[in-house]
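Researcher: Please translate sequence to structure tokens.
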Amino acid sequence: MKKNLKMVIILTFLLFLYSSICAISYAQNISTDIANSVFRLHVIANSDSEEDQKLKYIVRDNLLKYMNSICENCETKEDAIAMVEKNKTTFEKIAMNTIKEEGYDYCVKINIGNFEFPTKDYGDISLPAGYYDALRVEIGEAKGRNWWCVMFPPLCFVDISSGVVPDESKELMKNSLSEEEFALVSNQSDNEIQFKFKLLEFFANNGLITAKK
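Model: Translation complete:
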């Protein structure tokens, strides 16, 4: 009897171990594929003061206006990153000029890299926590609250109050993801899809998966 109980415990443990490995592998692959399909913007304010937070949004708006003009015909994330790389100096000048026009003398640090992001909703699209390629803009001491969005596909201009992402933006994302991956980020009500998204969040938030390059 004890021998049979020991065997059951061993088999149960092995089944749990196998299931955990499969779940982590699934979450890792999905997280990486999603992260590889988007390019994000990350703006960090000098501080949390009302003035610095207001400045952050003005800088953001001017950068997005320029980004929209130069990336209008970008069809892939790689196209968008290449365009930003090519015009990185201009992005920096726009940020600096905006800061000066608003009466501040903060410095600006701009980097294109792979950074960690929390789970974030963009209208009816949700991106799980993880590491994403992004244009990071640090204003002054960069000790204030963050603001982030997706530059490609263009979700930065989503009217959050309406909760709807433009169809053309969804189409670009859908073309870059598998059917299941797109279902995960598009807030579908299917219980299985919701469970899988929560699984992604759990593993990412506990450092069990990364998509960092």
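Researcher: Any highlights?
Model: Residues 31 and 211 are 7 Å apart (CA to CA).
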